[in-house]
Amino acid sequence: MTTTHTTKAHILGFPRIGAERELKFALEKFWRDEISEAELVKVGQTLRRRHWAWQSEADLDWVSVGDFAWYDQILNTAALLGCLPERFGFDPKRLSLSQYFALARGNAEQPALEMTKYFDTNYHYLVPELSSESTFDGGVEWFFHEIEDAQTQGHAVKAVLPGPLTFLWLAKAKDGYNKLDLLPKVLARYTAIIEKLSAKGVRLLQLDEPILALELPLEWQAAFAPTYQELAGKGTQILLATYFDSVESHAQLLADLPVAGVHLDLVRAPAQLAAFTAIWPKNKVLSLGVIDGRNIWASDLNKVLAAIAEPAKALGGYLWLAPSCSLLHSPVDLAQETQLDAELKSWLAFAKQKLAELSVLKKAINGSDVADILALSAFSQAARRASTRIHNPAVAERLANLPPQFDQRHAPFAERQTAQQQRFHLPPLPTTTIGSFPQTSQIRAARAAFKQGKLSAADYELAMQAEIALAVQKQDALGIDVLVHGEAERNDMVEYFGEQLAGFAFTQLAWVQSYGSRCVKPPILFGDVSRPQAMTVAWSTYAQSLTDKPMKGMLTGPVTILQWSFVRDDQPRALTCQQIALAIRDEVQDLEAAGIGMIQIDEPAFREGLPLKKSQWASYLAWAGQAFRVSASGVGNATQIHTHMCYSEFNDILPEIAAMDADVITIETSRSDMKLLEAFGSFQYPNEIGPGVYDIHSPRVASVNEMLRLIAKALEVVPAERLWINPDCGLKTRGWPETEAALNNMLLATQQARAAIAAGQTLVFDASPTSVAAQGACACHGAAEVDPVSLA
Fold this sequence. Notes:
This protein is α/β, with parallel strands linked by helices.
């Protein structure tokens, strides 16, 4: 693949949303029928061409093509391979964009594909549905069209796809089929793709196999050699990319594979380099991920060069430089940040700036004079280390003097549950929502006007109070038992808190894709964390004043604030998390003192923070669980602590989730058809639990019978006295009409379930998602069909 001694540079992928979220806005206009498919396609092409041009201008040796997706790259791959779920009835070869989005968002007939976290990131991928009958006969040609477009722009193309084994691993076999048995079919399609790439003159294909960073079962490890032997020699050479953790245990396997090269993540796992250089073949590329693809700190270029000096001498032109992983997880362009102070800005690099860092490293290794740039990098790194903005002695002192049992509630759950029942007098199967209500255009306009100085603080407060009052009125009218204030005043569940905590800084346009058109703007956590003043008390007490029903105080937990921020890299994450936990604890105690009796501390990122290797889990779970308990344990027995987790597998950490000791946990379960809840039942989760009964990430409104069916499944697992009814997640991204329709159906389904319980009946269901019945506890046959509204 390489014939000179020149070190080359490339990236594994680039953010696709655009520096100003152009793709997000175009997608949402398309979904609202405000633009045509042709107009949407043009936006995508413009973004791709811009990003390729930036890579070329940075003197990278290839542009990466295939990293773009309209919604998700795993869904794109399923569409390319032709393995779409039969239940939708779509022809993969003729798949329209509207049908593609139906797979991602659901439609009137079918719920969307399941969605979950991509390894330990905050990016969500759509889970392919496979079975023994799945076919891989080819699908859309979008991938090849993008390659042709890049070639017409004059670029040297490196094609990018998820590797076949990672694709299978991330998929779900709906009928319990062994996914590896599908490998021959998958490889036949990958072979056809590689041959087509070769015919188009594409010399290099990057296949991403991040599952190698996991502790894979032996049968999956054993599949790598025959898989890549099958794919080798088809004309286009393969760069196998690993990332997110060390693959040192597979060093010999990777050295022996018939691929042109392998990529390593040296940001997450720098120590693995020695194991590879000791055995690496002289004629095989070693791509070193030396620029952090998942954080925003500028690289210490001198430190990087020192670390790779010896491998560069040994490998010559077979050493390549790259970011650790795709830059998908980074914001696009630091140059747009006109309001960051100069000192902090000098410490940062976004995706476009990381291209420039790669260019400098490449030039330095190849002998060009970049001394001035290296000197500036050294100065910036030293200035950051010496800055007085980073450390707060008072925070360190407080942490050092925490008393014993600081992370424990005053009494066990059973005692607390009794006190809470006596305080709140909730009905069976109490209903609630997860926290947020629709962020309407009026809310966003008021927030923008306030930030621009066009709306006074007093007028902004009145506008938000009006939105809170509307949310409370609508919940009361629906008959929800435990209310929320709707979070109208919050731009984001992490950014909102970061704006009010010391140690954080904020950006204008540092957006990162979470899923589909959903983008987040993580705060920059650069220094020690403390809480100067109360953050939510005024909003929650105002909302509580509008109703006699319990009003949950809504907070984001310390682990999620940590995970969903760009976190400082100069101290252990555990220490930073402890600082955040103390700040949240102060807020919890102030809410309780203000009369708020239910407080929800959301931790959707708790599972996401796990190391990829199970052997490393214990340490993380110990400090993450303790951080949550520290934040929650300063209240009395009658104060009910809730938490929320979503879009993750919890089966293998249930003891640790139970040890968090929240009084009530709500979880996402609708897309998995309540399968996530089964583990909670098998484990005999001791506290109260609210499994989501409908999917909020789809505009589709689930019927009463669909929700009743899920309630019935939940009652098989959780006793009625410990079961709550709620949506999967917050309702921020939905509109009011669909929100009210869905919540009304949820309340109707709950009323039917309560009626069945009061009558001594058991809800039962068959395999059909639209068939639910109630039968007497002793009856075995002849159950009557339930009218969806007869018990309302």
